[in-house]
Task: structure prediction
Amino acid sequence: METGSVHKIGTSRRYEDAHAREIIEDLVNQRRRMMVLFCHAAGLDRCGMPAEADDPDEVLQAFCKALLAYLVYSETCFFDLPPERTPEAFGLLGLELQPQIKATSHIMEAFCEKYAGAEHTPLSEQLDEEMAHLGEALSARVGLEDQLARVLLLG
Result:
């Protein structure tokens, strides 16, 4: 009977690990889509060259939609987990990173509140400054999420 219970535990652990990998892969795919739209909204193509002219309002709206989807998915990945998988369960690293991730969430939410549904793109200088600030927050968040993802995947 002990062997059966050990097998169940092992199977459960493999399922959790596979599930964690799937969640992280989905997060990376969401992140990739959002970052492509971020570059496009900033006026760059994938190579850092000026992008072809599209309607800036439509591009910005698509980016805001992707940014919000990414934010929701990311929050779900790391903060709506079973108790043994929450950032608190990750130890000091999780407790240290959680407020930093939340701070980037506030920056992302503020950007989307301002620009999602806006009828016209504001002056490009203002938008450029806010995109730069958002880019810094996104960069920080990616690094923080990657640290939590490593802990989630490696246990």
